[in-house]
Design brief:
Elements (H helix, E strand, L loop, with lengths): L14 H4 L13 H10 L8 E2 L1 H8 L3 H13 L3 E4 L3 E4 L4 H25 L2 H20 L2 H16 L5 H14 L10 H19 L3 H19 L13
Length: 242
């Protein structure tokens, strides 16, 4: 470098790479796909965030090959998208696509709930109640991230007794694709309180083994959710134009 020439600016890690967390145990291979998926589902990587393959590979201490393989899997799961000559990014939906995924979840949940009520026992009641109590704590603390996590645990607990493995896989896949938008972070406290009240009625119907009421309350809950989410339908930081 010529004398007096300015030093090159230090290389900055990309937003995506800077937020990655490695969870592999010492002496075991990096969990490339699991940790990339976890980063996307956390909502810390907003829709449209570019995923630089070389930087991600350096973070995990691997060649670009396993990163590319992981991206292909995540592409198939709908969590990332690929644009020629641009590369991979966290998937960004139109609001219509986002809303459609909520409709898919509502339909799958309705089918699973009817089967779940017929199979549920005391241990299932306890699991649903524990998630509901977690929701109450998150609501009282104003912690939208914990609220979102406990809400998902609550819905998972309701449908788990159904024993419908393939349906549950589709349900969770549809939910995963909406995670980067962090919907609960965009709903005001009063809205989250109303959703909690929905859950309260769903819990009561589940424990009573009242399938008709449970499905009706579930569908009402999804209507409340989608009505609330309409408020940020035009946010181009989250959604593609229309």
């Amino acid at each position: 470098m010529p004398v007096g020439a300015p030093s090159p600016a230090p290389r900055r890690r990309s937003v995506f790479a800077s937020r990655l967390v490695s969870t592999h145990a010492e002496g075991t291979p990096p969990r490339v796909i699991d940790d990339m998926r976890r980063a996307i589902l956390s909502g810390e990587e907003p829709p449209g965030t570019l995923i630089p393959i070389d930087e991600v590979a350096r973070f995990f201490g691997v060649s670009p090959i396993p990163v590319r393989e992981a991206l292909k899997v995540l592409l198939g799961e709908g969590l990332v998208e690929h644009t020629p000559r641009v590369g991979y990014a966290v998937a960004k939906l139109t609001f219509a696509e986002f809303r459609e995924l909520y409709d898919v979840r509502a339909a799958l949940e309705s089918a699973a709930l009817r089967a779940a009520v017929g199979n549920a026992g005391p241990a299932d009641d306890e699991r649903v109640l524990t998630a509901h109590e977690g929701l109450a704590r998150a609501l009282a603390a104003g912690d939208e991230r914990a609220y979102h996590e406990q809400s998902r645990l609550f819905h998972d607990a309701l449908i788990a007794p159904a024993g419908m493995r393939r349906l549950v896989h589709m349900y969770r896949s549809a939910w995963n694709i909406t995670e980067p938008a962090r919907p609960m972070a965009r709903v005001e406290h009063d809205g989250r309180h109303a959703f909690y009240d929905d859950h309260d009625r769903m819990l009561a119907a589940f424990v009573a083994r009242d399938a008709d009421t449970l499905v009706a309350e579930s569908l009402a809950h999804y209507r409340h959710l989608t009505d609330a989410l309409e408020g940020f339908a035009d946010d181009l930081d989250v959604f593609l134009p229309g």
